[in-house]
Automatic annotation (TrEMBL):
Organism: Deinococcus terrestris
Source species taxonomy: Bacteria, Thermotogati, Deinococcota, Deinococci, Deinococcales
Stretches assigned to the Knr4/Smi1-like domain: 24-161
InterPro entries to which the protein is assigned, alphabetical: Knr4/Smi1-like_dom, Knr4/Smi1-like_sf
SMART domains registered for this protein in UniProt: SMI1_KNR4
Any Pfam family: SUKH_6
Protein's name according to its UniProt entry: SMI1/KNR4 family protein
Amino acid sequence: MDDLTGFWSTDHMDYQRRDLILPPLTPELVVSVEAQLGYRLPTLYVELLKIQNGGLPARTCFPTSEATSWAEDHVAITSLFGIGGQHTSGLPEASQFMVSEWGYPPIGVYFADCPSAGHDMVALDYRACGPQSEPSVVHVDQEGDYRITWLAPDFATFVKGLLPEEAFGDDPEETKADDLERIQTGAFSPELEALLAAFPDPTMAARLRALAAVIVHEKGFFALHADPYSTLMYDLQFLLHSHRHAVRDGESYVEGVYPSLVALADSQGFSTGGYAPDFVADWLRDARARGRIASTAEGLQFTPEAARGVLEALTEVWESR
């Protein structure tokens, strides 16, 4: 590619500038990181990082001939990892972390994050070419038992093939407007309606809708992944359910209770229209590991301190409307 100046997006939020765009690249750092990775990075990848060391591309979607957990006809990325930084934002740690902690197959270098916050990734695949040659680009789908979908024969082809989100399906602004209308006026599921009626705070229904509106404004649509606002929505649903019903074990909650609250409610009502169970299971596992949710005589419950924290976080959202 001759002109690389338009590759990076100029529309970054503050957290993206802080966490994703790393300090300027140096030749010494490239040599060091390649040695730690055990792979030679594509020349074009390094050239892009010389312009900006990681961040959000201007075009974020790549077409596919088969469906993935993200869409029927494309995959999406939220960032390209720079070199350096901590494990959540830069190579080599970001790639090695996905293999050692998330169980991704060791096929090469995981270089691009996706909107699922770790549940699918884009990687440089060196299996066929060896560590010093030009790798192909693949999508690896944790939600599909780490299914690998071939995307492009090399990184340059991948970059040339990236398209704007508008190239796929509905207009983003129209989708956002439709989802805002739906979460502000759509009927709650009978199960969620009953939980809200039983909760002592009569403003909880409005607070729930306010949190959903923040999620739509952040993402452009109503979906829950592993970001902080999604986590707060998971917290709130569990708080409402456990206030009225005993939660005997995590599996029955994730598989039997959770879907009927928001995920698989009437698609025209207050609903995300679907969900990935692993996100909810990961949230519950983390809450228990951190001691926020504990086993009691009444079943799994938030600790009093954690319950107060959920309500305080919800109040912050409510007051910032």
